[in-house]
Design a protein that fits this description.
It comes from Trichonephila clavipes. The protein is mostly helical. It has 6 helices and 3 strands. It has a 3-stranded parallel β-sheet, with helices on both faces.
Length: 142
């Protein structure tokens, strides 16, 4: 997935300012995976152990987990798609309809969650706030 889809897709975009965040679960942090991500993102990798430590399975601090997946799933399945094409169309439609204002609210919620956990993750907080400010205007699914 990473070598066949993720990295080639990144090559189509300017990634100099992008950060990559993983949840730190051991299934995502095999040495080969981390090495590949470090080669791609350098010090802009937030994962387990290095370069910026992030707790494993931290759904409370990961907007994709506490907001996006549940939100998308509920709307995608609202009309009970019966075919793969219908399911894919619903996913594209739901993602395309997420507006910048909604993402801004998610980011504000995320910031309040970070304030709650205190200074233990200060480095990750700084990195994430920077990343989210740069990417709060658009979410796409292609």
């Amino acid at each position: 997935m990473i070598t066949n889809f993720f990295i080639p897709e990144l090559n189509n975009h300017d990634v100099q300012e992008l950060w990559c965040q993983q949840d730190g679960a051991t299934c995502h942090t095999a040495r080969a995976t981390i090495d590949l991500l470090k080669d791609t993102f350098g010090d802009r990798l937030i994962s387990r152990f290095e370069p910026v430590n992030w707790p494993p399975r931290s759904c409370d601090l990961t907007p994709l987990d506490y907001f996006l997946w549940g939100y998308v799933k509920s709307l995608v399945n609202a009309d009970k798609p019966q075919t793969l094409d219908h399911l894919e169309d619903n996913i594209r439609r739901v993602i395309a309809n997420i507006r910048p204002q909604m993402l801004e609210k998610v980011i504000e919620n995320w910031k309040s969650r970070l304030d709650y956990i205190g200074p233990r993750l200060a480095v990750a907080v700084i990195c994430q706030k920077s990343y989210l400010k740069c990417n709060a205007t658009r979410l796409s699914f292609e």
